[in-house]
């Protein structure tokens, strides 16, 4: 976009679009200079208005919200960016895959979108690495540490402390390198109201009935709960871990045993919540993708009468024995 680096209002406009939980691909297309030179269209002169959506459907196919619910896939009667906005509505995850998939968005704007939440994503993985190291070494020491020699126990203990440093430093790194999005997250997580109570009621009812799942967009009440669990356990585990690390020799045995018990209890709390978080975010999406890929075959495609007639008139179709999968007999 011309003047992107020099005009502050352009940067503010783009950041406002990217920070809004709404599909940004249509707006980014309008901010671009036209269709990408890397497109696969034959003859750009045939495109009327190069900034108009060409209905390639790339953004719809790339959206994880569309893939998450089968019913949304069935709504793809119009494969356009505006239709994507209607399908996803406010449940946009701000992953910007739609922007990356659109052939009409300028390459520089795609880089801007990729870098916009880069710090947040890096801190997320930094925290995940620290937690996994903490969980593995903590469980190992708690259940199997009595069978180890002193040297091996010391190595695992040092790895546990390194994991603690990585995990506890995550929010400080996020605040230092991206204060704006850190404050945005804190404001959203620590805001409560009647909508959160209604969300949990609907979530509980959806478990025992066929009622629609509650709002699944950014900073929904379930996501708020997950962040609060992280903040709570991080605080308690950090304090009890530091006490055990630095003041083990200055505190009585009964008091230290109490601190260790609290440490273990909150470690189990974060472990159980992480197991659900992992299954909800990764395993469920993988299962949904696998089901979609394994069930959708050529026999599932319903052809209109016009297309079916055209196909049947092609040379060699009857000789090949192509049948209508729904009537299970040779089409006339």
Please tell me about this protein's structure.
The chain has 332 residues and is mainly α. The chain folds into 3 domains: 8-116, no CATH class; 118-294, Transmembrane di-heme cytochromes, Chain C (Fumarate Reductase Cytochrome B subunit), CATH 1.20.950.20; 300-330, no CATH class. It is built from 16 helices and 2 strands. It has a two-stranded antiparallel ribbon. Helix 10 (150-177) crosses helix 11 and helix 13 (221-246) packs antiparallel against helix 14 (253-295).
Secondary structure: helix percent: 55-70%
Number of strands: 2
Query: Which regions are unreliable across 5 or more consecutive residues at pLDDT < 50?
Result: 322-332
Output the CATH topology of the largest domain: Fumarate Reductase Cytochrome B subunit
> Could you tell me how far the N terminus lies from the C terminus, measured between alpha carbons in angstroms?
55 Å
- Number of spatially distinct domains: 3
| CATH homologous superfamily descriptor of the largest domain | Transmembrane di-heme cytochromes, Chain C
Radius of gyration: 27 Å
One letter per element, helices H and strands E, the order comes to HHHHHHHHHHHHHHHHEE
Pfam families: Fer4_10, Ni_hydr_CYTB
InterPro entries: 4Fe4S_Fe-S-bd, 4Fe4S_Fe_S_CS, Cyt_b561_bac/Ni-Hgenase, Di-haem_cyt_TM
Keywords: Cell membrane, Iron, Iron-sulfur, Membrane, Metal-binding, Transmembrane, Transmembrane helix
Membrane topology: Multi-pass membrane protein
